[in-house]
Amino acid sequence: MRVFHLFIVLFIVLIFSGCVDDSSGECPVDIENNFILKFRYVSDEPEELFIEKIKRVDVFVFKDDGQYVMTQSADLAALTSFAGITLDLDPGSYRIVCWGNASEKTFISPLSTNSMMKDAFVSHTALRSGTTATNGDTLYYALDHTILSPSLKAITVSETVIERILDFHNAFVKVQVYVKGLVDKNPQGNLLPPIVEMNGVTSGYNFEMQTFGNAVRYLNTTAFEYISGETVAAITFYTPRFKDDNPIEIKIKKSSDGSTLTAINLKDFMRENNITVEGIEEAVVPILVEYKEASVEISIPEWGQIPVDPEL
């Protein structure tokens, strides 16, 4: 009888001996995550810039009918190790929405098991708090439609894991305002940097990256920079995407008393200077406001977007 038991044990060992090698594709494996998303961002330039541009990703999974399934996030440390994320999903059809760089200036609507994708949104935190915005986050967006077939429940590694590349797109416009020649001093005689105000900026997006919501007011003080051999007051605002035909107004204000010196209709400025933000991945609107003795000139700065290091 003991010999018979020994024979049975040896038989079982021989049957499963092919599964000792981890490289075997025929062995049962315990797969915790069956879906791998690799993140990618390619701008108007040919090189891949994901980790340079995006420091955090929030992933939202919905069923094909829009019902919320789950959320998963990856911070800078995780993205530096692997520019992607792994998920464990049942077979089915999914819509996966990703927001990159949603930080302290971005509010993401709370989601629960009864939530629907059509009701989800991101907006500026200033809208929620009823305050002015000093700036916005440099948001990026990605959307994927994925079908996971029942065959993913098979027992081999090659059949259980599906891998996709997800391309991110820029979800903000960079508005650069430069001011030259404005003399505004405090009682001690020190030159004060002007304040720039932007009105008419849409507050956020739904989860299909369509802008919506009430307008947010941006307001912040410029900083003096050394550009092309001159001291210039400068500020950059990051806003949600807007169209060339937009209602945005930019005001230049004195820091000493808050009075408005110049108002700029952004739509008119863009049209007069052949600037478009539509269909441009890295959309930038540079504006130079130059105060002279008897006039104010509003134009595109000659130096473009490249500041000169004062030490050079």
Automatic annotation (TrEMBL):
One Pfam family, short name: Mfa2
Top-rank taxon: Bacteria
InterPro entries, per database record: FimB/Mfa2/Mfa3 (IPR014941)
Protein's cellular compartments: Cell outer membrane
Keywords: Cell outer membrane, Lipoprotein, Membrane, Palmitate, Signal
Transmembrane segments: none
Family according to the record: Belongs to the bacteroidetes fimbrillin superfamily. FimB/Mfa2 family.
Protein name per the record: Fimbrillin-A associated anchor proteins Mfa1 and Mfa2
